[in-house]
């Protein structure tokens, strides 16, 4: 029984040593949030005589390759990378505008395709994305009957190395105790915590242009972060916006009335002028009978009449 326990303990120790030796051997790259970093691929020169190789970068925990391309006769073709990523010379992986989510273990695999047989080599490295704690003070959207009389603010702390956090609030330099609450910090990734505190103020506990300050205290690094915000009367703003809309609508209606009135005035004025011209002009008779009448036709008809009358007497 004792020998079996010893064997089990030895197996656990061996697994632990192999894991720690692996993690110790894996190089670690540290870079700041928002910066650009190039990850080296040690297997870049693994197949110097190969005429075609396939290179793939992958972050552990993702189902698809992060970035990859084919090198054919020294020419890079068919590069396919995610946003903010690219493969440079010597198969380096470049990451731009680093995010916390970019942190983790990366694998670089170089596969020889030509000449056969296919062979591949994989290297590993760990990327750590470091960030300084930041604080943000924002308004929360409020709705309902108290939207104009009550204010709610949220104070956010991000990239904390400790879960021991508290918030203090002041109005014009005086500590606020009423309407204050906070949430338990949550671990946003493997490294950092985030926390949030809330403040609700209702009149008469606040007035226009009050200065509200949120202070975040976290104890791991003994750093205090502060951010100020100046309160504004939402009701007055809505009122002003409503008055502005009323002014615009009224002006548009007035302008439309002026245009329509001017058009009607011009129309009546033109009609009045036409009537005045008709009254001042002489009478002109237009008769189609008189227009078609000519002396030549009259003489012809008279001659025919005289001739016919002579014929009657002759008979």
From TrEMBL:
PROSITE patterns cross-referenced by the UniProt entry: IG_LIKE
Cellular-component GO terms for this entry: plasma membrane
TM region positions: 244-269
Domain (Ig-like) ranges: 20-111, 133-231
Coiled-coil residue windows: none
Localisation: Cell membrane
Signal sequence region: 1-25
Listed InterPro entries: Ig-like_dom, Ig-like_dom_sf, Ig-like_fold, Ig_C1-set, Ig_sub, Ig_V-set, T-cell_Activation_Regulation
Keywords: Cell membrane, Disulfide bond, Glycoprotein, Immunoglobulin domain, Membrane, Receptor, Signal, Transmembrane, Transmembrane helix
Gene3D superfamilies: Immunoglobulins (2.60.40.10)
Pfam families, A to Z: C1-set (PF07654), V-set (PF07686)
Membrane-topology annotation of the record: Single-pass type I membrane protein
Protein name: Uncharacterized LOC107076672
Organism expressing this protein natively: Lepisosteus oculatus
């Amino acid at each position: 029984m004792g020998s079996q326990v010893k064997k089990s303990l030895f197996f656990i120790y061996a697994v632990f040593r192999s894991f720690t030796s692996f993690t110790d051997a894996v190089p670690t790259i540290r870079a700041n949030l928002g910066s650009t970093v190039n990850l080296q691929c040690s297997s870049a020169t693994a197949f110097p005589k190969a005429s075609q190789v396939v290179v793939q970068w992958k972050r552990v925990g993702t189902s698809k390759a992060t970035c990859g391309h084919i090198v054919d006769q020294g020419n890079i073709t068919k590069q396919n990378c995610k946003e903010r990523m690219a493969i440079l010379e010597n198969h380096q992986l470049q990451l731009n505008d680093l995010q916390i989510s970019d942190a983790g273990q990366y694998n670089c695999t170089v596969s020889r395709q030509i000449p056969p047989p296919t062979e591949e080599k994989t290297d590993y490295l760990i990327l750590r994305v470091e960030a300084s704690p930041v604080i943000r003070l924002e308004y929360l959207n409020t709705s309902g009957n108290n939207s104009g009389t009550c204010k709610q603010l949220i104070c956010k702390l991000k990239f904390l190395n400790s879960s021991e956090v508290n918030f203090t609030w002041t109005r014009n330099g005086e500590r606020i105790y009423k309407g204050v609450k906070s949430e338990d910090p949550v671990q946003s990734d493997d490294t950092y915590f985030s926390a949030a505190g809330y403040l609700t103020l209702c009149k008469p506990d606040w007035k226009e242009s009050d200065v509200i300050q949120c202070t975040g205290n976290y104890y791991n690094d003994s750093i205090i972060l502060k951010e100020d915000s100046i309160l504004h009367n939402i009701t007055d703003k809505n009122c002003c916006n409503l008055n502005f809309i009323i002014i615009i609508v009224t002006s548009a209606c007035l302008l439309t009335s002026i245009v329509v009135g001017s058009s009607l005035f011009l129309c009546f004025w033109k009609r009045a002028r036409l009537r005045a011209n008709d009254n001042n002009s002489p009478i002109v008779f237009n008769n189609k009978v008189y227009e078609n009448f000519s002396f030549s036709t009259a003489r012809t008809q008279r001659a025919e009449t005289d001739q016919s009358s002579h014929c009657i007497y002759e008979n």
